[in-house]
Amino acid sequence: MTNLPTKQVWHTLTTEEVIVALDVNPEFGLESWQISDRRAVYGRNELTGKAGRTKLSIFVDQFTNIMLLMLMGVAVVSAVLDLRVGSFPKDAVAIAAIVILNGILGYVQESRAEEALAALKRMAAPNVRVLREGKVAEILSAELVVGDIVFVDAGMQIAADGRLLESIKLKVREGALTGESKGVNKIADQVFGEDESLGDRRNMVFQGTEVLQGRGMMVVTATGMQTELGKIANLLQDVELEETPLQKRMAELSKALVIASLILVALVIAVGLWRHGDFVKLLNTSLSMAVAAVPEGLPAVITVTLALGTQRMVKRNALIRKLPAVETLGSVTTICSDKTGTLTQNKMVAESLFTANYAAQINGTGYEPIGEFAISRLAGDMLASDLNVYQCPEMQLLLAASAICNDAYLQKKPPTENQNNHHSQWKIIGDPTEGALLTLAGKTNLWQAQFSNYFTRVAEIPFTSERKLMSAIAAIQSMDAEDTPESMRTIASLLPNSPYFLFCKGSPELILERCDRIQLERQISSITISQRSAINIQNTLLATKGMRVLGFAYLPLDHLPTESELNRIENKLVWLGLVGIRDALRAEAAVAVQVSRHAGIHTIMITGDHQLTAQAIARDLNIFCPENDKVLTGQEIELMDDDELTEVARQTAVYARVSPEHKLRIVQALQRRGEIVAMTGDGVNDAPALKQANIGIAMGITGTDVSKEASDMILLDDNYATIVAATEEGRTVYANIRRFIKYILGSNVGEVIAIASTPFLGFGAVPLTPLQILWMNLVTDGVPALALAVEPAEADVMERPPFNPQENIFARGLGWYILRIGVVFGLQTIALMEIAYNSSNPSWHEHWKTITFTTLCIAQMGHALSCRSDSKLLIELNPISNPYLLVSVIFTTILQLSLLYVPSLRQFFGTDALTASELGLCFGFSMLLVLWTESEKLVSRWWGKRRTPKSIVKNQP
What we know:
By secondary structure, the chain is an alpha+beta fold. Helices cover about 45% and strands about 15% of the residues. Keywords: ATP-binding, Cell membrane, Membrane, Nucleotide-binding, Translocase, Transmembrane, Transmembrane helix.
């Protein structure tokens, strides 16, 4: 391979010198052997610096948890007490082992989370469009090598350092490197001095910077850690580790529980000593209480639940970039959705065509360039069936304009063995709307590749959301060669005698404003008021059918415009016609909108399309109801102040002809009304709105790199239904977290009450050792809690209103439930201890501690089953809908019994082998807690029906 010059001098070379130095053909790209050789030398285009915490720091962090620190303290005190009387400190050893085990489990979980986050980041990595072996292809940015020819477009994030070979109105924001947020105009054909600062190298683009507007072509000069971004080890290599609001609340809860348990320990010891109790016994009681009060397994269960939630969302095509999004999704009240590709299929098909004298309906499906034109005169009857496009000069010029003024590529994929669908052989690289125009032209054998040779594009005025227009200037080439296609000769013969032509497409209203002439057959005439009126009627007719409508015009030029002339040249154009493009609705979108409505979520459609087009599609999706909902246009938004927009925001179902800048105002208006907003976006200018929204959602397929970086979530399939599915998952995750918190803390409160009572009820000893309590908290509590974390969504989860994201974790009766069930559980256990300890049966009296321990463990199994639902009885639930819980209950029960009947375990845990009657007593008392929780559900139902007006009950389906 040619030795490459150092990258510091690329900006000092001309484009020709760069091409020679990199040994690349800009019209063909690299060959496969060159790609392999260069990747072997430079590696993958990835930043390989330190990402996140080291393995050692992750492991050390596991032992800074306040609950584990308290357990370590308990272990030390327990060891001192055992050694004081000459006993082996097995409780201390067991606690230390469990602390270490908990640390290892936490380390494994967090390490996997780090790896999963890195994997998700790779999934979100941008694709780039390159020229290789003469073909345009999309590849992962990591696959780029030095010398690759890369197409640069508005909205993309530059994936490697490169020298520009071509630039058209190209502006790049380089804040990631220079700190300057203002865009920099790039010029390919300039050369700069060797000492030029990084921010002034306007013929270069750099990895991590954002293309704001325009387009261009570059050759890669540096990849990975050799880039300017690699030098400062910034931006993409940093793993985002963000503590969620829930995790913060749980950390606060852990501190509160530890503090409360220490206060309770001090109180029990103080009261016991005041009553002349034995200090050592009181200290043993306190140690057991301290261990019982703290749910050691809770942090791990929450971490696993959030991780499982994000994994389930990925399976449903929702990629979560920021963990808080998992929680916030459950509280979304408004979804602001783009139309194209999200509510529709984004498979555009041009179906209608209007010129001054002709109208055509075109059939065909997908991007396959096969279809028939049914042509009629606008002022007459249907023409003869053998009439084709070549007999309609106006249409030919319009189709030519649609292929020349176009940045997409229509390609035929090579056939595969399993490819049965002929239509799938064609694909679009680029914007689907532009792809539909190439397909339309291809149906008449007008091919983009031919236009590239005979109508060479020499300048461009790119599309922007403000202009809503795109113009391309083509230089007409000689048609004298014998191999010139007849189609190109025909198009050239229809055009005036000029060396250059500007072809323009965009918003029909704006194009028409700039036209003072119109194409009539082969002639150009002044446009009349009646012709303008007819065009507007045609535009409205297509829009009311739910089509996206584009207007086309052109302008003969006697010279190539200068840079200053380009800014004012789109005037006095010649009108060519309209094209109506249909984007079929997603079948699942209407269902998802209905589901959202039942869930208390309002759907708003935001689009840049015509008001009537947007209204028609929104009506078909049941987003818009003419009697109740408003439609606002971007022009109307411009005339409103913030207060006026806030007033009408909630009643507006459709925003049409909206620029991305308006999206930010719409989000802010909705938030001022107290809405929790999810906003979709795919463009560069969508980034502010995505950041402002409570949930910013970027499109995974059509979204720009900038929009993805600004988002909280990425739709891998660009589908509105995926937003609703992710919302359901968010609600389910939060419901499951509340479910196992209810289970774990309710049980722990009961344990604390039972243990705290023993010094004052004359039992003579604490029924449970710290080791036995740890067993309950980590095994009989932890295993079923993990199973509750994967409880499937309840049938009505999307029929409930969204929850308040600021609510306390104990809101909606959860705190009262924990306290209530804890008291019931504690009193039940005290009653059991009284019966066993004071029994006339010597065996029961002797084994009262083991009876208490076993009953507490088995009772929690029933409690776990009951916690599956707040409203449905246990017998009403499908036992195999959560097989993990069923298996965990059976498995944990067997483990508990093994502590009684396996000699080595019995000796280690200090238990006794229970008789059949004693075991029956344990299971009998265990059932009491289940009977209580199930009875509460029945009472709640009865009370709810009593409070519901009879008229409502009578009218319920």
